[in-house]
Design a protein that fits this description.
mainly alpha
C-alpha cells in the first residue's frame, strides 16, 4: 500500500469516527431532553398534588 492509499484510509476512518461522535452527541442531547421533560412532568405532578391537597384542606376547613 502506498502513502496516498494510507492517507485516504486514515481520512475515511477520521470522517467515520467524526460521524459516529456526531450521532452519539445527538443521541446524548435527545436523552438529556427526555430527562429534562420527565423532571418537568415530575414537578408538575408534585404541584398538582399540592394544589389538590390545598383544595381538600380548604374544603375541610369550610365544613
Amino acid at each position: 500500500m502506498y502513502q496516498g492509499q494510507r492517507n485516504t484510509l486514515a481520512f475515511v476512518r477520521t470522517i467515520s469516527v467524526q460521524k459516529e461522535n456526531s450521532d452519539l452527541k445527538k443521541q446524548l442531547l435527545q436523552d438529556y431532553a427526555v430527562l429534562i421533560m420527565l423532571e418537568i412532568l415530575r414537578y408538575f405532578d408534585i404541584f398538582c398534588e399540592l394544589k389538590l391537597e390545598d383544595q381538600e384542606r380548604r374544603r375541610i376547613l369550610k365544613v
